Amino acid sequence: MKINGQDVALDGATTVDALIAARGLDPRRVAIELNGNVVPRAQRATTQLKDSDVVEIVSFVQGG
Amino acid sequence: MVSSTTPSNASAPGAPEPNPPFVPSATQEQIDERRRVFDALRALDPASLVSRQEIRDALLERHGAATQAKLDAASVAICGCGGLGSTVAVALTRIGVGHLHLIDFDVVDMTNLNRQQYSLWHVGLPKTEALRQVLASINPYLDVTCDQVKVDDGNVRELLENDGIVAECFDVPENKTFLVNAVLETFPDKPLVSASGMAGYRSSNLVTTRRVARNFYFCGDGETAPKPGAGLMAPRVGVVASHEANMVTRIILGELDA
């Protein structure tokens, strides 16, 4: 699986939500793209990831 | 703006002194005069200063007819009219983007002036109203729509459906994240330019524009939040705002790569 351009080993079944938690990210401060499409917030808990997936995680900090 | 650029005043041992909180100290005369100046500026008939044709002629000399036609036809939503949004709006106004949609619920504060495009006579006024006047002093013939509202899942579709490009210019991370997710979910074919990580005075060279997905662009260094001694400041916020404004311009003119 690729995350932000880096090859990452997929450790067993994991959902988008689980990935966010595993990386210690705040789900209210990230947007997740999977194979070029956003993973809707309502589907993060049920969207399964696989080896061939390309994931982009974008996170937001204070300021603007 | 409700959130502070110095998130916590609690100091750890050896931590820098928290910034002194700003207390307004204007006299009533000054407050009244600011209002008088704003009302006078707002009451000016733009045609008394410049004709539509003269402004067009000036833009055409700079850009040429083909480029200007594309800019004329463009419509951009500026979500948030603070350091990012006011700066993006001014830049796009200067090049004559035909339609701007300003969205912000907040009022201008004196502490905004260290990075936002407002003047002294705007302090206390709603940002959309103040920004409208700022933009009108540059080109009063553009179409500017204002919504003094907070964007949420209930109104995002109706608010943004007529805007061709969305510029995410919020400040609170949860709001920035909400808007990006909502726009990507609701309008997958609408170009979205967002920004994060612009505080302090770290190197400008850390700031980039990245095309994350087909219609999703991200400007900033992605990590630098304000902290005591290194809050949001005009120069670096301006770098990121210009990245956003230039990416919007690229999209309008048909260059879709970052």
TrEMBL record, chain A:
Pfam family, one: ThiS
Xref: InterPro entries: Beta-grasp_dom_sf (IPR012675), Mopterin_synth/thiamin_S_b (IPR016155), Thi_S (IPR010035), ThiS/MoaD-like (IPR003749)
CDD domains: Ubl_ThiS
Domain of life: Bacteria
Protein name per its UniProtKB record: Thiamine biosynthesis protein ThiS
Source organism of this protein record: Pseudoscardovia radai
Automatic annotation (TrEMBL), chain B:
Gene Ontology BP terms: cyclic threonylcarbamoyladenosine biosynthetic process
Annotated Pfam families: ThiF
One example GO MF annotation: ubiquitin-like modifier activating enzyme activity
Superkingdom field: Bacteria
UniProt cross-references to Gene3D superfamilies, sorted A to Z: NAD(P)-binding Rossmann-like Domain
Compositional bias annotation for Polar residues: 1-11
Domain THIF-type NAD/FAD binding fold: 58-255
PANTHER family according to UniProt: THIF PROTEIN, TRNA THREONYLCARBAMOYLADENOSINE DEHYDRATASE
Protein name as catalogued: Thiamine biosynthesis protein ThiF
Organism: Pseudoscardovia radai
